[in-house]
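During the no-cost extension, the postdoctoral fellow (Dr. R.K.) reprocessed legacy sequence entries with the updated structure-token encoder. One reprocessed record is reproduced below for audit purposes.
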Amino acid sequence: MSRNTYIALAVAIIAAVAIFNLPRTPYQESVMEEREDVSTLDVKVDEAVAIIQSGEGAPMAAIGMLLDVLRENPNHEKALMWLGNFSMMSGQWDKAVDRFHQLSQLHPENEMYTLNKAQALLQTGDSTKALEVANEYINTYPNANRVKDLAEGL
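Re-encoded structure tokens follow.
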């Protein structure tokens, strides 16, 4: 073998070793930890909702699971939404108002959160505040048909 062949072989071996030792995935530890945290909380919410919707298991334990999620992340959208929905189903209108108020502050573009807040306010007997909430939303989002329908009915 010639000298050039040995040099090319050495360069190829060094390159192969270097490539072999490179990381196989990009370094994103902090992003991955955050994703794991969010997905763990989402799984907890899904389990709690399944317990309540199936009718099997203790519903209050499932509500406790949702509240645990909020202790870990007070602005967890799915947990707040389900607690608001379950509050409405059980006639706990003040709690529903609080949950949907928080959601509408976090996600002001979401028409359903504002609609649920206004409906819960109506159930508490505060039709003036419900109309005010609906009109504020309509002023910001003029194409909000469901909130418009509610406001027109008041």
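The chain has a mean pLDDT of 86. The chain is about 80% helix and 0% strand. The remaining legacy entries will be reprocessed before the final report is submitted.
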